[in-house]
Amino acid sequence: MKIKITIPTERIHNPIISESIVETGILINIMVANIDSTYGELIADVNDLKFDKIKNALESRGAIVSILDRPIHRDEEECIECGACISVCPMNVYSFDDSWNVLVDEKKCIQCGVCIKMCPHGALKLGE
Amino acid sequence: MVKKSVHEINRKIEDGSVNVVTAEEMVTIVEELGAEGAAKEVDVVTTGTFGAMCSSGLMLNLGHSEPPIKIQKIWFNNVEAYSGLAAVDAYLGAAQISDTRGIQYGGAHVIEDLLRGKEIDVHATSYGTDCYPRKVLDTIISLEDLNEAILLNPRNAYQKYAAATNSSKRTLHTYMGELLPNLGNVTYSGAGVLSPLSNDPNYETIGMGTRIFMGGTQGYVIGNGTQHSPSSGFGTLMLKGNLKEMNPDYLRAASFTGYGATLYMGVGIPIPILNEKLAAATAVRDEDIVTTIEDYAVGSRDKPVIREVSYAELRSGSVQIDGKDVPTSSLSSFKNARKIANELKAWVKHGKFFVSMPVERLCAEGSAKPMKETQVVPLVKDVMSSFVVTIKRDQTVQDAAKKIWANSFNHLTVISDSGELVGILTAWDISKAVAENCFDSVESVMTKKVLTCAPNEPVDLAARRLDRYGVSAMPVIDAQRQVLGIITSDNISKLLARRY
Ligand code: SF4
Ligand code: SF4
């Protein structure tokens, strides 16, 4: 599953992620990382069964962990299959198939919301 | 030499022996049979396009009220339409936005709602005359209540369109969609191989009176579109069709974030193959249609061209810019363009649609002029203060305070030893430093990320930047970052006071 790890300002200098990985032995696949001297936010993929353990390890060190379980939803009635959403999505969620239908690979979505603003037909929403 | 007439082709449509193919299919047919062979074989080639066509609108007639009113101003679902015509006619522009709902809802949305059978609020006002005494009108209408509901599109079906990208550091919201910073994406519009005018680039069969597919029904070309620019390959069409007969699959309202409302229109044009020249023209491929990628970071009419590109490359999913693969997005739907070309093909094949010759041809030469402007646009250098107070970065906060005091000037530009701009310091920054008991060097309290502008930029652009970032002044610098002056909101207010 996809998770978001937020590291608050006061913890940013601690190697929270590395410590948690070493402690639990659970590997997480970091897909996006925005870290500067004041704030950190990471999006990562982790095995569903191991989520609780890594979550505890991260949270015991002051990180905030949330599950990204509202992937993008496309309203097929509204969508005109223009493909405007394709180029702005950082995770390549969208693509054209051979017949120029727009395909949506929701599993890859990290809920950044960029595509929602791009869609001229209001066809995209982050699901509930 | 193959020579066919529209009458012959229409007879074939009537007796069911017509051979009609889409412009996509025609590419391989001409490859296999040659232009002459293809011209003998094929009678009609259908094209299609489905994209944002801002220059659209609805010409409508409401019928007379009791007592009658000569409408002066009118709103449909709070979207204003133009009614400076006779008493109860109005033109509702697709790109007009709602007074209450902003750019999310515009004329295009009213048009789509009408087409979908929804009820629309009408509010109208007038000054009242002896013959039209009524001054205010409120009613609710739906499409069937209108006498005429004619979609009248002054500029549609661009032959091709320039693609867009953005070299600046921030995301731009444009009618070409979201353009990501640092050349992060390219957006484009147009159906390439299926584009109507690209398949008849000499406008031999597309002209005034040509019967077409428009929004799911039969419409007509009524002339060249506005800004028709055939010499540069940017021809456009003016179209007319009856909204009451249209189909919402081919007419969709849209709204671009930060830009506004627009209407997606489905247009298809049949090209009767009268000779081999037309057969050859309809064999045009995506590879053959070349356009430019323009940099929307420059907010002026002439945008820098990043490079030339073919529709084949645009449609491949990415284009090369400076050796980097940049992802592309289409704003128009090729799937729907294809659907339109196929639907039109079926109409012709089943005898439901007859081709026509134009009663007058479109001009195939000439280009659109830019606006004639009688007032020179003031440039930053015309209104900036060339009196600037500078300070070196290693001077103290106290030096800075003294300078501000002595010159009664609110902004100090901070420069390096070689005179390059490195920061900016305001009276407020100094008060803050003093309040925090910080009397170090200027460098430690100045703002380092300075917004700047160039002397030859139009003032309007500078004003927009000041406004967007909520700052009150910007140093004006040259290419070497030497400070030439400063432009403040004060300079701009004075300019506006003179202008209006
Ligand atoms: S941008 Fe919107 S309308 Fe276009 S393909 Fe994507 S979801 Fe569909
Ligand atoms: S929300 Fe972000 S990651 Fe998800 S589909 Fe949209 S652009 Fe892609």
Automatic annotation (TrEMBL), chain A:
<dbReference type="InterPro" id="IPR018449">
    <property type="entry name" value="NIL_domain"/>
</dbReference>
<dbReference type="GO" id="GO:0046872">
    <property type="term" value="F:metal ion binding"/>
</dbReference>
<keyword id="KW-0408">Iron</keyword>
<dbReference type="Pfam" id="PF09383">
    <property type="entry name" value="NIL"/>
</dbReference>
<dbReference type="Pfam" id="PF12838">
    <property type="entry name" value="Fer4_7"/>
</dbReference>
<protein>
    <submittedName>
        <fullName>Ferredoxin</fullName>
    </submittedName>
</protein>
<keyword id="KW-0411">Iron-sulfur</keyword>
<feature type="domain" description="4Fe-4S ferredoxin-type">
    <location>
        <begin position="100"/>
        <end position="128"/>
    </location>
</feature>
<keyword id="KW-0813">Transport</keyword>
<dbReference type="InterPro" id="IPR050572">
    <property type="entry name" value="Fe-S_Ferredoxin"/>
</dbReference>
<dbReference type="InterPro" id="IPR017900">
    <property type="entry name" value="4Fe4S_Fe_S_CS"/>
</dbReference>
<keyword id="KW-0004">4Fe-4S</keyword>
<dbReference type="GO" id="GO:0016491">
    <property type="term" value="F:oxidoreductase activity"/>
</dbReference>
<keyword id="KW-0249">Electron transport</keyword>
<dbReference type="InterPro" id="IPR017896">
    <property type="entry name" value="4Fe4S_Fe-S-bd"/>
</dbReference>
<keyword id="KW-0677">Repeat</keyword>
<dbReference type="InterPro" id="IPR045865">
    <property type="entry name" value="ACT-like_dom_sf"/>
</dbReference>
<feature type="domain" description="4Fe-4S ferredoxin-type">
    <location>
        <begin position="70"/>
        <end position="99"/>
    </location>
</feature>
<keyword id="KW-0479">Metal-binding</keyword>
<dbReference type="GO" id="GO:0051539">
    <property type="term" value="F:4 iron, 4 sulfur cluster binding"/>
</dbReference>
From TrEMBL, chain B:
<keyword id="KW-0028">Amino-acid biosynthesis</keyword>
<dbReference type="InterPro" id="IPR046342">
    <property type="entry name" value="CBS_dom_sf"/>
</dbReference>
<feature type="domain" description="CBS">
    <location>
        <begin position="384"/>
        <end position="441"/>
    </location>
</feature>
<dbReference type="InterPro" id="IPR000644">
    <property type="entry name" value="CBS_dom"/>
</dbReference>
<dbReference type="GO" id="GO:0009086">
    <property type="term" value="P:methionine biosynthetic process"/>
</dbReference>
<dbReference type="InterPro" id="IPR002708">
    <property type="entry name" value="HcyBio"/>
</dbReference>
<feature type="domain" description="CBS">
    <location>
        <begin position="446"/>
        <end position="500"/>
    </location>
</feature>
<dbReference type="InterPro" id="IPR051257">
    <property type="entry name" value="Diverse_CBS-Domain"/>
</dbReference>
<dbReference type="InterPro" id="IPR016426">
    <property type="entry name" value="MA1821-like"/>
</dbReference>
<protein>
    <recommendedName>
        <fullName>CBS domain-containing protein</fullName>
    </recommendedName>
</protein>
<dbReference type="Pfam" id="PF00571">
    <property type="entry name" value="CBS"/>
</dbReference>
<keyword id="KW-0129">CBS domain</keyword>
<keyword id="KW-0486">Methionine biosynthesis</keyword>
<dbReference type="Pfam" id="PF01837">
    <property type="entry name" value="HcyBio"/>
</dbReference>
